[in-house]
Specification:
The complex is a heterodimer of chains A (506) and B (538). Chain A is 45% helix and 11% strand. Chain A is α/β, with parallel strands linked by helices. Chain A has a seven-stranded mixed β-sheet, sandwiched between helices. A four-stranded antiparallel β-sheet of chain A has the order 9-10-13-12. The longest helix of chain A is centred in the C-terminal third of the chain and has 28 residues. Chain B is α/β, with parallel strands linked by helices. Chain B contains 21 helices and 13 strands. Chain B is globular and about 70 Å long. The chains are: A alpha/beta (506), B alpha/beta (538).
Chain lengths: 506, 538
């Protein structure tokens, strides 16, 4: 008799392995996937792949532990995410920073030390800040004698998201920096201890674990930590090229978006830095509008990091995302701006960051999360006075701009003498230099070789493009505002030596 | 008759759903025969192979090297998470086709993340409501006599005058002078986990406060912007999302946020009872641990506060040893929050977990201590907290995570000077303790006169009062009613036991250190009125 048997072939071994196991299993797996998506919050099993260093220790089993007497145990384990964070730095960006801080160059005391060109810190106007602080310190923190500012104003608990006076002062400072036409509403400001936690809080608030942000490259190496470490959010690089002077292209953005969707990754926003870090160029008004259109079309967020808005040395005009949002009828609730005083007022040690958002839910959640990143009230008092001293601020901004520009010109001219050109830029504390002529193999390996030689032979810490996810090898970010004008010839001379050895050996 | 050939071993291993169905003449033993013939087939035939395949997937997933951080999936509380998603749903569903059609400005509102929603949803507990009410309408002896009196915030204002005087005399030198770096020492980038000088100073201060015999190593300190982020960072570092900590209850209401919000870690309260003076019993701890295990939860540690907040009691040397034994047996961590260790007003001796660990020279790396200057130095506004850990990996990770919670340099410079001024510090500690003790005695005496008893307490800024005699129904509801009356009628903001996850209703936390002595009669008078109405009703 010939019976029709379901899956007959399977049993008989004809192609059975594949059909017989794959099909039902695939179906079941899809069911699982479906269930998982539907289930709201059942946490993923943490992937322990990163904790391999820990796994090397004795495996922990319960039966073992109940047998053991006091003190005979294996070592206690830390979480897999902590193991991941605790891993030694592998990015050249952080390796370089560590090297420079271990053996810092000093013209007199340590002339063979590493010169720091990897940290975007502005030391050109410390004298102005010092003068102001020494004149106004006591008044700003304890108040004028008999004033109503008592000690409890700085010692006692204050709102974690910042004092209202500081928000007001900050809003008007931001208007001053970003062009008079923009007004910032103090009630849309949340203050954090530096821009770093502001970025992280936004990442928490806008995306869930496994979601992604599109980020035009090259981008600031710290974003990988700030956006991803504790949030589980992904960054998808959107590559910009030297032929476009590294400006963003909406078509490329759209492609990246489409590819992410195909991979099943939910894109929650675009993260831009304007002025761009590391390139130093600006996003034009049209580009900002197209970006907003794009975000609107996809219904995603935009985070605009404008922390260098006041550090302009070029002639181009800076346009804040806030200005675009105000001027046209865009849906505002998708726009969030990051700002801080670390760059424009050169006080990174004060840890003052700003999250400016048009979205009420984001503001409400961010305010609650500032319990983990508050600014000390002593510092807040100091900043309130400083920002309210309009004469000082005006003078500072003017002098700072001039000093940054002078040093930029000097530095870029020095590089040009060595045949190294920089991308056209208008702002920031750095320049973006094309050293692709100096690398031996046109690839990331060649770039890292050159970086290594600069760090270990020439003793110059610069940030290689690969640390910024730049797709073209051979670009380097050089922060020049930690130098004095006298240091510039030293730097240029050290680079020259490297270029000469490279040319002679090739 | 190849048809009846039993499935070969490889087919068998791969768990095909097929069986040797079509046997006619001969009866051959066929694997999974029943499946094909429809006898219980659906279950056996699909579930078994699929389950196996699923495990394979799981296995692969675990072993795949994952470029992404193993960070927390969504949310700390599954309930609020669900609620959070519900909030999203009423909004127009976002589909691509829709978005493409919509012209500029017509798109629906953009979503925020589920976890942001859950932070918002967390809503207002009585603890928050009380704090808000005080902020809106604070009592002032002269300006606002009908305002709400703050008894809900752990803040010590008794010795602020000393700090103020010191600041006026020393702030300028502290911030600007004394350091060869000058201005660059405060405005430039500094190590985000705190200046070494401050770590040394804090280590010295901790030794002084916690008993001279304990030595703290500055290299084991990580400084954070307050103790709040210190706890969150430890929670990130010791547990993964979905793991849990055991916490003896009643506990500080803020702990739920600090431990759970962004980390996805759970808290399992271990109930302590008034009959034991709210001391932790290892039996209860063990029971909670086993229950958690049964629920499939992985317990990664215990969080205690010593001196306990809200009760104010201390852990004896013996109970600390037991706790350490327990942790060792289960191979879990211990976080000891000792932020009140310098704010003692009783006669008992405070024993730091550090002392226990130092005395036994083994297996220290499961112990982590949280400290801060908010309480013992009355400087919550400065946001200076510390993690003290014996675990190198935890220290390494925590140092990196301080990029999100760093202390500003001017405050650090100031604290370095203040803590190094040994004469001032000694005077401050003595005076502060004396004032704290006097205030505690006055406050408790006042409550006793109203017939309200407090548990015996030795440290902290609060007393833990038994008002179960005043609640109408012996339940959380009754407690909540009394709390509501205290807040809205008597205008006193106290923290109800339920906010601290206390299992017995009717207990309240009174923080008395924001008061002045003159305020005490006012507070007592307000409580008296409430207790009288309660008694006249019943």
């Amino acid at each position: 008799m010939r019976l029709i048997v379901p899956l007959q072939g399977v049993v008989q071994g004809r192609g059975g392995l594949i059909l017989g196991s794959l099909i039902p299993c695939a179906l079941y797996y899809c069911l699982q996937l479906y269930l998982k998506r539907r289930r709201p919050s059942k946490p993923d099993p943490p992937s322990p792949s990163q904790s391999s260093s820990n796994l090397a220790e004795l495996p922990r089993t319960l039966s073992r532990s109940s047998l053991s007497t006091r003190g005979s145990m294996g070592r206690v384990r830390i979480s897999s995410r902590a193991s991941w964070v605790a891993k030694p730095n592998d990015s050249p960006y952080y390796i370089g920073l560590d090297r420079a801080s271990e053996d810092p160059y000093d013209r007199v005391d340590n002339p063979d030390g590493v010169i720091q060109l990897g940290l975007s810190e502005n030391r050109l106007c410390l004298d102005l800040i010092e003068k102001w602080v020494s004149e106004n310190l006591m008044e700003s923190i304890v108040g004028t004698e008999g004033g109503d500012l008592s000690i409890s104003g700085i010692a006692a608990y204050q709102p974690f998201d910042g004092m209202t006076e500081l928000k007001v002062a900050m809003a008007s400072f931001m208007s001053q920096i970003m062009g008079r036409s923009v007004s910032f509403d103090p009630s849309q400001i949340v203050l954090t201890s530096g821009a770093t936690p502001a970025v992280e809080i936004l990442s928490f608030c806008l995306a869930d674990h496994g979601n992604a942000f599109l980020v035009p490259t090259p981008y600031y190496p710290g974003f990988d930590r700030d956006m991803r470490w504790r949030t589980g959010v992904e960054l998808i690089p959107v590559h910009c090229r030297s032929t476009d002077n590294f400006t963003l292209n909406i078509t490329v953005l759209d492609q990246a978006y489409g590819q992410a969707r195909k991979r099943g990754v939910k894109v929650q926003g675009v993260l831009i830095s304007n002025p761009s870090n590391p390139v130093g160029n600006l996003l034009s008004r049209e580009m900002l509008c197209s970006l907003l259109d794009f975000a609107q079309e996809k219904n995603i967020h935009i985070i605009s990091d404008e922390i260098f808005a006041g550090s302009m040395y070029g002639s181009e005009e800076f346009v804040s995302m806030a200005e675009i949002v105000d001027s046209e009828d865009f849906e505002k609730s998708r726009v969030h701006i990051i700002y801080g005083l670390s760059k424009d007022l050169s006080i990174p040690g004060f840890r003052v960051g700003v999250l400016y958002s048009y979205n009420e839910s984001v503001l409400a959640a961010a305010k609650k999360l500032t319990r983990f990143s508050p600014i000390s009230s002593l510092t807040q008092r100091l900043i309130i006075s400083m920002l309210s001293d309009t004469r000082f601020i005006q003078e500072y901004l003017q002098i700072n701009k001039k000093r940054v520009k002078d040093l930029y010109d000097l530095f870029v001219a020095g590089l040009q003498q060595l045949g190294i050109n920089c991308a056209k830029s208008s702002a920031g504390l750095y320049c973006w230099a094309d050293m692709s002529g100096l690398i031996r193999s046109y690839g990331e390996k060649g770039e890292l070789e050159l970086w290594d030689k600069l760090l270990n032979t020439a003793k110059i810490n610069v940030t290689p493009g690969s640390a910024c996810h730049c797709i073209e090898p051979g670009w380097f970010r050089c922060c020049f505002t930690t130098l004095t004008p006298e240091d510039v010839p030293v730097v240029i001379d050290r680079i020259r030596k490297v270029t000469e050895t490279i040319k002679s050996s090739s | 008759m190849t048809r009846t050939r039993p499935a070969d071993p490889s087919t068998n291993r791969s768990k095909s759903t097929g069986g040797g169905g079509g046997t006619t003449v001969m009866r051959v033993i066929v694997p999974l025969q029943g499946v094909v013939q429809g006898r219980g087939g659906l279950v056996l035939g699909s579930l078994i192979p699929c389950a196996l395949f699923y495990f394979l997937q799981l296995y692969l997933k675990r072993h795949r090297s994952n470029p992404n951080p193993p960070t927390p999936p969504p949310s700390p509380e599954s309930e609020s998470e669900q609620a959070g998603q519900l909030v999203e749903l009423p909004v127009l569903p976002r589909s691509l086709s829709r978005a493409l059609l919509s012209p500029r400005g017509a798109g629906g509102p953009v979503y925020v993340s589920g976890r942001a929603n859950s932070v918002l949803k967390g809503g207002e507990s009585p603890y928050d409501v009380g704090l808000r009410k005080v902020a809106e309408d604070p009592y002032d002896e002269l300006g606002n006599q009908n305002g709400v009196i703050q008894l809900g915030l752990d803040e010590n204002k008794l010795s602020l005058d000393l700090v103020g005087d010191w600041l006026v005399d020393n702030a300028k030198d502290a911030i600007l002078g004394g350091d060869e770096l000058g201005i660059s020492g405060i405005v430039c980038y500094q190590p985000l986990d705190g200046l070494m000088e401050l770590k040394v100073a804090v280590a010295g201060f901790m030794s002084q406060v916690m008993g001279k015999s304990v030595f703290f190593d500055p290299s084991q300190i990580v400084l954070t912007a307050g103790a709040t982020p210190a706890i969150e960072i430890l929670s990130f570092c010791l547990a993964d999302s979905g793991n849990a900590f055991l916490v003896p209850a009643p506990y500080y209401p803020g702990l739920d946020r600090d431990v759970k919000w962004r980390t996805g870690v759970e808290i399992i309260p271990v109930p302590c009872r008034s009959a034991d003076k709210f001391n932790l019993s290892i039996t209860a701890l063990d029971r909670a641990f086993n229950q958690a295990k049964k629920r499939g939860l992985k317990v990664r540690g215990i969080i205690i506060s010593n001196p306990s907040n809200p009760v104010g009691s201390l852990y004896s040397r013996e109970s600390l040893y037991n706790l350490l034994d327990f942790a060792r047996e289960k191979n879990i961590h211990i976080i000891s929050n000792e932020i009140f260790s310098g704010s003692m007003h009783g006669s008992e001796e405070f024993v730091s977990m550090a002392e226990i660990v130092e005395s036994e020279d083994l297996d220290r790396n499961r112990v982590h201590i949280v400290y801060g200057l908010s309480k013992d130095l009355s400087l919550p506004g400065f946001r200076a907290g510390a993690i003290y850990s014996y675990n190198k990996n935890v220290l390494a990770a925590a140092k990196k995570l301080t990029r999100f919670s760093s202390i500003s340099s001017p405050s650090q410079r100031l604290l370095i000077s203040m803590l190094s001024d040994t004469k001032f510090i000694r005077k401050f500690i003595d005076t502060s303790r004396e004032r704290l003790r006097a205030m505690y005695l006055k406050f408790v005496t006042g409550l006793n006169q109203l017939g309200i008893e407090c548990t015996k307490s030795n440290g902290g800024f609060s007393c833990w009062a038994d008002m179960s005699g005043l609640i109408r129904s012996y339940s959380e509801k009754g407690e909540f009613e009394l709390w509501d009356r205290l807040l809205n009628v008597a205008k006193l903001n106290v923290t109800p036991g339920s906010s601290c996850h206390c299992i017995e209703p009717g207990w309240f936390r009174f923080c008395f250190t924001t008061l002045t002595e003159k305020d005490i009669p006012v507070v007592m008078e307000r409580i008296r009125k409430i207790s009288e109405t309660c008694k006249s009703h019943s």
